[in-house]
């Protein structure tokens, strides 16, 4: 009986959290269109999130391209289909691997950062101090961050995709003596707008989810400094789950519009 | 002096303020008035509702019932814009200073100015206001430092400068000397007194510190179990025979 009550409580708190998150998202949209616009802070956040994630995204993208090609090559060789490598790698990376891996990395790097930053601002009363100084902290801290992640993630995905394809080309060049021009000619021949557009739209949603959950967890952080750790941690866990759900929905919707 | 102040205009009036968190009844009908130019000290044990009361006063918390009038405006009924305008007339010194970690001292002081063009006009150069506020607290040389580079006492002074930059009529101090060594605490008290004399501000000071109360108060309220248990000047309360009142001065 106790277990049933516990399960009911868990479901209740989960639904409550979903409700609060939806309300938070609604408030974001309301505040986004109201003056004054915190344009300077938005640019600062774009720079902070974009520029400082570049190296991590580049290294991860490069390794993924490299490993993916190395692992697939023997199988394609066996079937005599190694010339399909650039097409296969490019479609996989552009459609799926690039956006989801970059989003997961950014969830760890940016989402936890936002959760911890806003959480520590909450527990040290910095958010209250903004409020009493007559500045809307939601607009200044939350709206700018969510907008910045939404805009920067697709750019990071493009960058990560390019580096991953370059990593893949290096393997092909070393193992199969394929030239840069030939490799990328095949890459662009294989790709269509039907691959790029859904992936880009999906990346915007990924960015929005990272910013939204990070800000939500940090903004409502409780229980002192211990709560800051919880906020950062749960921001990453919730965002990762949400990313896979968005990805699933995106593939489903894409399937309707494009014949995959 | 105290009698004169009591005859001045009332700028804050709290009536029958109640606030609970679940079953925890923090404020049970608190009443208070603050007069122009008055320094009112509110003392109470930890958890007696002092900080909650001050947060209700500035609109950071919503009261369950009761009324809070600040300069003739009912706080609970104001729109966000009007509340923000009222807030420019109220400075708040937080217990932990609450300086913005990611900003320099200059940016911390400039931050409140950005939104209040009605009061100051559109400022192209905020340097004179920033430097004046810093000079008031004796820390003009710290203008380009980050909060992490400041000592506890310096942080408290910078926070005070940040509250002063909007030239408020009322300053709320939430435990201004807590966590400071006796010498720094004394310096902060002298600073608070000099600011009050210079700008003729009214203040509500929440504290546990008897020395702070003795130095700065015109009037005191002892908050016990969410109500104002006793009220009077420092001398009146410190010589009281009531054991509950005496406990504060031991």
Automatic annotation (TrEMBL), chain A:
GO terms for cellular component: ATP-binding cassette (ABC) transporter complex. It holds the Pfam family MlaE. Its main location: membrane. It is found in: Membrane. The keyword Transport applies. Keywords: Membrane, Transmembrane, Transmembrane helix, Transport. The chain crosses the membrane at residues 53-70, 146-171, 196-216, 236-258. GO terms for molecular function: phospholipid transporter activity. InterPro entries: ABC_MlaE_roteobac, Permease_MalE. It comes from the Bacteria. It is a multi-pass membrane protein. The keyword Repeat does not apply. Belongs to the MlaE permease family. This is Phospholipid/cholesterol/gamma-HCH transport system permease protein.
UniProtKB/TrEMBL annotation, chain B:
It holds the Pfam family ABC_tran. Gene3D superfamilies: P-loop containing nucleotide triphosphate hydrolases. Signal peptide: none annotated. Transmembrane segments: none annotated. Residues 12-250 form the ABC transporter domain. GO terms for molecular function: ATP binding; ATP hydrolysis activity. The keyword Transport applies. InterPro entries: AAA+_ATPase, ABC_transporter-like_ATP-bd, ABC_transporter-like_CS, P-loop_NTPase. Keywords: ATP-binding, Nucleotide-binding, Transport. This is Phospholipid/cholesterol/gamma-HCH transport system ATP-binding protein. It comes from Flavobacterium gillisiae.
